[in-house]
Specification:
Blueprint lengths: L13 H10 L29 H14 L3 H16 L1
Helix pairs in contact: 2-3
């Protein structure tokens, strides 16, 4: 799991950890916690556009055939089209 870090739950998989925290409240273990500092660098901004359900089904089929996610396929297609339009 994590390198050199211990887990309050003492569980070995993410599923077990999730089940542990579903059944427990952090306040029960608050004295065992330590302050942490970290930086968050959010680079991707997602925009959502409606797509006809039939078109969405077709996108999913093509993406599966190519072995990529629908998101990757759509971004590729849109990038190609924008390059053509410039």
């Amino acid at each position: 799991m994590s390198r050199g870090k211990t887990s309050i739950s003492k569980k070995s998989s993410y599923r077990e950890i999730g089940e542990f925290w579903d059944a427990h409240d952090l306040s029960e273990f608050w004295k065992q916690t330590k302050p942490a500092e970290f930086e968050v660098d959010i680079q991707t901004q997602r925009m959502y556009y409606p797509i006809d359900s039939k078109l969405s089904d077709d996108i999913l089929k093509v993406a599966r055939k190519r072995g990529v996610s629908p998101e990757t396929l759509i971004n590729l297609w849109i990038s190609e089209k924008i390059r053509q339009e410039k």
